[in-house]
Amino acid sequence: MSDVSGNNKRIAKNTLLLYMRTIFLLFISLYTGRVILNALGVEDYGIYNVVGGVVAMFSIVSSALSSSISRFITFELGKGNKERLNLVFITSVNIQIVISLIILLLGEIIGVWFVSNHMNLPEGRLGAANWVLHCSLLMFCINLISVPYNACIIAHERMTVFAYVSILEAVLKLAVCFLIQATPFDRLIFYAVLLVIVAVIIRLVYGIYCGRNFQECRYRFTADISLFKEMGSFGGWSFLTNTAYLFNTQGVNILINLFFGVSFNTARGIATQVDGAIMQFVNNFTTAVNPQITKNYAAGNKGDMFKLICRGSKFSYFLLLLFALPVMFETHYILQLWLKMVPDYTVIFLRLTLIGAMVNMLGNTGYTACMATGDIRRYVIWITSIGCLVFPFTWVAFELGMPVESAYIVFIFVYIGVDSVRLYIMKGLLGFPVMMFIKEVIWKITIVTGVALLPPLWPYLLMQESFLRLLTICCVCTLSSCGTIYFLGLSQNERVFVEKTISKIIDKYIAKVSCK
What does the pLDDT read at residue 80? Predict the structure, then answer.
């Protein structure tokens, strides 16, 4: 019980630290998004998003290897084998260097060909688009080499460092916003070059910190062929899963460009940015929970792992609901306040993006648990086979003349199927109790969502769009969501834990005030 209590406290502490960081990052992200859109214009903003999507097509390799590296490092930490941990780190760095060189070469050959011959670009902007491609590839390779270092920080649950470096990155990107407004050069090209410089600075910071604080991060050249094959095999299966998701996001982004034009990529890019800002709050929680899931599996504590899977999925959904509900009601007004110039289709894109995020995120902790086993062949085959349907279904929908938003509808329905199949794979792979997930997660989030939606409908229907209605709906949504989550979404033990945590925070605050 003491271990479980300690893990819960660690998760709560790490989540709180990441939330403090995210609140700061949210304001910077939203401000920089507005400045960048106004500085670049609709067309150049769309070019950056869609060309970045071409580069992201190569991230299927890095994402697969990132999953492999994170799993192996966290697993060895759970086992406590320091010598093996150092070997895993060295092998990870070697793999990332080799892969980054291969991707840089392929990206320059295939990427330039695709951008030059097949992208739907405004006249006269091909040169700038190629500059964006070159810089995006460089930035991608720099971030790829940083993966083992980031994985060590997360595996050691040093979320304070993770938060501080993320804040530094946000401040640097804020400086980039001001610089591109004053530059006499092509703003799109200058923006891409400055982002590469930011990536180099962040890479150096992570490397220096890890080298000084973690023994396993001391690099020396060595090659363990058996470990290389083991990590490569794991990464190969992860590669298939990431391929599906990539084609469902960046691949669809390119389809939208080919069928509808660059202005629709701008709307999609803005929707994705807002979704990313909101999802940071949820990802903070899963970032704190995921290492505990892997460590519990490594230690053989399956019962605790099952509870973490359910609580992680449920709490992640509730956190997203808290932030997404007011945004979905007041999407148009919020975008007007933020951007002033709102591209067409941004409102419907953002609402559908948030719904898709709610569906997709329910499987995050289950994915982590399956990765922890190392035996992911059956999982990957089933999940990839179903997940890959988004891209061809969207293509068919566009060929049949269906509207651009049909891409999001296809994504939502396909990923409902993915979540369902994942549960039954977890049952066979882990002995996971599916009915436990249905009762503790699916049933409760359905009730909470249905009830929480009702109170905000009144001000939305009865009041005219205005800042007063925005404030009213934000307050009503917060009270409605918190109330329904507390009374209908939490178990008795979870309510007791929340009450004790809040009580401790209040007591500490009162003690500080009394001392003053």
Answer: 64
